[in-house]
Amino acid sequence: MRILYFAWVKQRIGVGEEELSPPPEVRDVAGLIDWLAGRSPGHAEAFANRKTIRAAVNQDFAGPDHPVAAGDEVAFFPPVTGG
Amino acid sequence: MTPRIAIQEAPFDLAAETARLTAGRQDVGGLASFVGLCRADDGLAAMVLEHYPGMTERAIARIAAEAADRWPLLGLTVIHRVGRVEPGAPIVLVLTASAHRTAALESCAFLIDWLKTGAPFWKREEFEGGAERWVEAKAADDAAAARWKPA
């Protein structure tokens, strides 16, 4: 699974991209966040406030219940501020 | 009608983009444009824009397709800059062309409202002296986008 981070999520984690194989019990976006938050203090800080985290699965916005699977591209970032 | 969508570091030229939408045709009766500029709030030195390559283009293409479904457009251009932008410089351009003004004006407003909330860009502000801050999403922007949802 390809995991991407943007904006301050990327700054806190320290990398923009990771190639990871989450355990089979990780089935959705919320489960993936729980698992990622345990990987390092930077991950824990980035995911400390779930309300400020948005996600995309395979480049479409996705809510916490959206399924994730091996081979997916999953991105985490703050609410968008373009325009 | 094929929308022109560009994500680029370079500045854009409104006059050139306008000419591009109208060149060689006589059916356009109205053009509407929105240009977003970088303001020098609170001693801002520069704005640095980050995006999600790939998803950004997909998201804007989808928003553009929705605009083309809702209004009879003859042309549509969205240019969004990324990277470092200094105060006074342009950040985003939305340009719409139609036979009549209402479609051009409404679709232009729709597109910029949706770009603010539906495309993966993030702004970081850099201040004189080295401080920096990520711009936070505004509830007012969500409300502006929500007013375009079909009833």
Range of helix content of chain A: 25-40%
Basic shape of chain A = globular
CATH superfamily of chain B: Molybdopterin biosynthesis MoaE subunit
* Tertiary shape of chain B: globular
Structure description:
- The complex is a heterodimer of chains A (83) and B (151).
- Chain A is built from 3 helices and 5 strands; from the N terminus they run βαβααβββ.
- Chain A is of the alpha+beta class and 83 residues long.
- Chain A has one domain: Roll (Ubiquitin-like (UB roll)).
- Chain A has a 5-stranded mixed beta sheet.
- Chain A is globular.
- The model of chain A has no long low-confidence stretch (mean pLDDT 97).
- By secondary structure, chain B is α+β, with helices and mostly antiparallel strands.
- Chain B has one domain: Aldehyde Oxidoreductase, domain 3, CATH 3.90.1170.
- Chain B is built from 4 helices and 8 strands; from the N terminus they run βαββαβββαββα.
- Chain B has a 4-stranded mixed beta sheet, sandwiched between helices. Chain B has a 4-stranded antiparallel beta sheet with strand order 5-3-7-8, with no helix packed on it.
- In chain B, helix 2 packs antiparallel against helix 3 and helix 3 packs across helix 4.
- The longest helix of chain B has 18 residues.
- Chain B is globular.
- The two termini of chain B are 27 Å apart.
